[in-house]
Amino acid sequence: MDLTKRETQILQHFANGDSTREVAKRLGISYFTVKQHRVRIRHRLGAKTFAQAIAIALDEDIIEGTDAWTT
User: Fold this and answer.
1) pTM of the entire structure?
2) How far is it, in rounded angstroms, from Cα 54 to Cα 29?
3) From CA 16, how far away is CA 65, in angstroms rounded?
4) Could you tell me which of 12, 11, 40, 34 has the C-alpha nearest to residue 21?
């Protein structure tokens, strides 16, 4: 279940509520590149959906939750 540093970074942005366009802008990469990362992240974590990938990453302490996830 190893994610690259960039994949972890992207996943954290999504967990924080950023959209695909916001992640691309913040990281200085293309929208298409972010979408490719989303697919790879989902497959690496064995998730059926990207929301499930975020949940798995939170459960496995790969990323940190925000207040929005704990209330």
Assistant:
1) 0.85
2) 21
3) 8
4) 34
**Residue 47 CB burial class (10 angstroms; 0-12, 13-18, ≥19):** middle
Q: How many degrees, rounded to 5, is the angle at CA 20 between CA 16 and CA 25?
A: 90
Look up tokens 């939750």; give the residue: 65
Tell me the DSSP string of 2-20: ---HHHHHHHHHHHTT--H
Calpha distance 41→43 (Å, rounded): 5
Question: pLDDT confidence of 2, banded at 50, 70, 90?
Answer: confident
